[in-house]
Amino acid sequence: MKLTIKDLNKKYLLSFNSITQLCGSNIPLKKYIIDSICKHFSTEKYREYEESFIDNIEIDDEIPGRKQWECYRINSKENIIDFIQLGKGSLLTKYLKEYISVFDYQNDLYQIESILVRFFDRLNRELFKDDNLQLSFVSEDVLGMIQHTSIRTLEDKDIHELTTTELIEAFINIISKQQELIPEKRMYIFENLDHIVGIKDYKNIVLRCEELCNKSNIWFVFATSLDGYVYLSDSVMENINIINEEVFVMPTIDHIMDFIKDYYPLERQWEKSYVKKCVSNIIQKIGSTEEIFQPEELVLIKLINETNDIKKYWKKEPKIPEIQCLLSKKVI
Q1: How many CB atoms lie within 10 A of CB 52?
Q2: CA proximity to 57, closest of 11, 23, 24
Q3: In three state form, how does the secondary structure of the chain look?
Q4: What is the pLDDT along the chain (332 residues), one digit of tens a residue?
Q5: Are 208 and 174 in contact (CB under 8 A)?
Q6: Order of strands, edge to edge, in the sheet holding 2-7?
Q7: What are the distances in angstroms from CA 202 to CA 82, 207, 307?
Q8: How many CB atoms lie within 10 A of CB 218?
Q9: Burial level of 100, CB count in 10 A (0-12/13-18/19+)?
Q10: Residue 128 and residue 138: Cα distance in Å, rounded?
Q11: Closest CA relative to residue 20, chosen from 48, 39, 42, 1
């Protein structure tokens, strides 16, 4: 799918699918893109100062319905905890309500309600026997009581003691179970995972979400800006968008392999795994002129690193054709 984001007279064309990654260091533009998606699918009324968000997104040249996805935005460890803890608007609370309504818990709830009714009747007789007052209790209050229970680990630890990765795993488990119970079209947007989990954990999280997408009607968007934070599989490659001075959409890995073979200044054999590793290292810098290191900067980094006893060596001696390629005003 092609996602178009409009900002006044500007248009940004992105690749959009069940696993979409937004890379690059243009944080304001990336935030505007995410704000646009979240606002459109929130079904909330637009405020006066949000006029620029009204119908500013298109999918395959058509404005999507605002109820096409149920949209959730996750951007911090605390945010994940809020979704997991029981509360008025938490994801777990919604899942529990759906679970209780679908499965046969009515008899258990009726027994709890009966006990509570007797309990309240006794309190009212003893506390308010001479007053025109009483404590009131209705059936819906049973669910309210469940919402006020606490979530702890099997080791009886507070949920805040879990690592961010453990919390995200629990969050994805809840998503998966909810989707099995009621398979509606939902979208989860993860921001700033690169600031709260390691690179390996990030890739495992996206892999887990990709597996979930393959068996469920669920979509994920991941926004990162730090080096190495990208998940590269053949199936998601075309849905990686780099947001820098320019917006660049990644082609397929086969297209990249052919491109390198045709235009690299030396004849050499390329392994797909090595190309993916190289792409992972440079992907956040694509489309940004500020990320091109000058020789003086490389020397300065080497000098400063050596004061910290960090030696910098070329893995391979630079070859003349490659240097010429770097110095050429027009490579292609």
Answers
A1: 14
A2: 11
A3: CEEEEEECCEEEEEECCCEEEEECCCHHHHHHHHHHHHHHCCCCCCCHHHHHHCCCEEECCECCCCCCCEEEEECCHHHHHHHHCCCCCCHHHHHHHHHHHHCCCHHHHHHHHHHHHHHHHHHHHHHCCCCCCCCCCCCHHHHHHHHCCCCECCCCCEHHHCCHHHHHHHHHHHHHHHHHHCCCCEEEEEECHHHCCCHHHHHHHHHHHHHHHCCCCEEEEEECCCCCCCCCCCCCHHHEEEECCCEEECCCHHHHHHHHHHHCCCCCCCCHHHHHHHHHHHHHHCCCHHHCCCHHHHHHHHHHHHHCCCCCCCCCCCCHHHHHHHHCCCCC
A4: 999 999 988 999 999 999 999 999 999 999 999 999 999 998 888 888 888 899 999 999 999 999 999 999 999 999 998 888 765 667 777 777 777 766 666 677 777 778 878 887 887 787 777 767 777 766 666 666 666 666 777 787 788 889 999 999 989 998 898 888 888 899 999 999 999 999 999 999 999 999 999 998 899 999 999 999 999 999 999 999 999 988 999 999 999 999 988 888 788 888 999 999 989 988 998 887 766 666 666 676 667 677 777 766 555 555 567 666 766 666 55
A5: no
A6: 10-15, 2-7, 57-59
A7: 20, 9, 32
A8: 22
A9: middle
A10: 19
A11: 1
Tokens of 243: 């947001």
Q: Which two tokens stand for residue 106?
A: 């009515």
Tell me whether strands 70-74 and 186-191 are parallel, antiparallel or unpaired. Answer: parallel
d(CA 86, CA 95): 10
Q: Which residues pair with 242 in a beta bridge?
A: 23, 248
291's CB contacts (< 8 A; 6+ apart) are 285
Taking the whole predicted model, whether its pTM rises above 0.85 is answered as no
58, amino acid identity: E
Tell me how far apart the alpha carbons of residues 311 and 274 are, in angstroms, rounded to a whole number. Answer: 23
